Amino acid sequence: MKQALTPITALADRPAMRETNRYDLLAPVRTLRRSLGLAPNDLAVLTALVSFMPRATWDRLARGQEALTVVFPSNTALSDRANGLDERTIRRSLVRLIDAGLIARRDSANGKRFPLRIKGAIRNAFGLDLRPLIHRQADLQAAAQAEDDAREQLRALRTEALALRATLLQRTDLDEDTALRLTAIRTLLRRQTLSTDQISAIIADLRHLLNDPEPPADTTQTAPSQPGEMTGKHGQTVRHIESEKIESKKPSRVTAHQQAQQPENLPIMAADPASMSWDDFDQVKTLYPIAPKDGRSLHQILTALAAMLRISERTMAAGLRSIGPGRTLLVLNYLIARIPSIRKPDAYFRQVLNGTGLTDGLDRGQDRFRTLPASLRV
User: Fold this and answer.
1) For the chain, which end, N or C, has fewer CB atoms within 10 Å of the first or last residue's CB respectively?
2) With a threshold of 0.85, does the pTM exceed it?
3) Hey, what's the signal peptide range on this chain (predicted)?
């Protein structure tokens, strides 16, 4: 027994702490929950573990003295203090807390948690060690502050974008196209996954509209347009997208079996833009409800979408040269629907151009395009 007590790794010896309440240890973890990969149940289990730390132990840690940081509750006791979570959920939460570097295991030979007493006093214990959480407080607090600052910046940018939109809505010369775009921008700003770069791109677009509003769209155009322009005739308001490099292309046919296999409500890249209408680009249409009148208008839309998705001008230029504006629009429509799951849209777009089209980060089991569809290869 004496030999087993030689290591003192379960004892925390650190400078005096500013906090006077042991539950203050949880504040930065709550802020960083998503970044740490934790679920709400994991926080409940961690809170329960902290509750098993005796107040006297915390007082000694606050004074910079050595103290035992291992707690040894059974899963049943943890369940009682963790809102009645079942033991299976508790075990999974403990694994995630360990993987996040917030606690550590100190297992006995039989896996039980219990204290080691000498003359009736607890000197050591087997169980769950809270020392990592205590020793990482400074780093966790700094990271939590940085995340709070980032969220504050997002809120400020979102507020600025909404203010610019409100200013535009007060204009008396607002055309229908711009009004629809402002409605789409309001919907886009509600997305919680937008980054600061994406909101900044929206602000730039709003400022452009405020300083140089576009003229009203002419939906009664009947004269044929030049190659690369959007055409509309015989009273049609739906305009088709065609690549400037291809004069004509037979529309691709999709069998009933293929349609049944396609995921619902998700845009795909295996389509022929020459046979699609503006309504088929559902994600882009949310931002730009009115179809572009000509190739120049289409190029402006592509440039704005690339900025929103953080795709560089060089990558976008390479895409326009390689697959043309129609298929470029098709890929951007695909990426907009997957903003939360594609971390690096610029790299993904380059993969499309290189013919790999990997779908890392997409919902596996739902997206069936593991490689670049043949209709996008050049």
Assistant:
1) N
2) no
3) none
